[in-house]
# Entry
Amino acid sequence: HVQLVESGGGLVQPGGSLRLSCAASTDTSVINCMAWFRQLPGKTREAIASIYLGDAGTFYADSMKGQFKISQDNVEDTTIYLRIDTLKLEDTAVYYCAARRGWSDGFDYWGQGTQVTVS
# Structure
């Protein structure tokens, strides 16, 4: 059973930057895609970006292009990052990491989330 652990959240001033990390462990060979989502207070969870393991192909939700960058150090890594630039008050949210098995339509595994507060 894949486990995901996010880190790197915290309190940041408007205009600042942050890099979140997500490390997957246990049976990671079944994963072919990892992604970042966020949930703003009182809102539903929304997708930010995804990255395909093995070729590092990335996909961004239209509204997230430019401010967010998803990455990994090596294409086979099961640790991914999310850099967030020019943080605004409205970026305050819980940021979640997710992973998908190769045969799944949706994301099968979720981290516990890391809080990012812009203030």
